[in-house]
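Sequence dictates fold. Below is an illustrative record:

_____
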Amino acid sequence: MGAAEALLAREVPGTIRVRCSGRRAIIEADPAYRRRLERLLGAVKDLGFEDVAIAPGGYEEGGADSWKR
């Protein structure tokens, strides 16, 4: 998670969180940067994740399950 967040933070401004569910990474960030995030999905996957997705609602405070709402 930390490596993925660091990679994304170099390319995308604002608060970024990577939540993990097994070998799946869910990226939470400002939806305004979705296109930039999409270009980085492969790089995040290369860190060892089987699947990488962008949370449709962006970053939400409130814990690891906030993306499920």
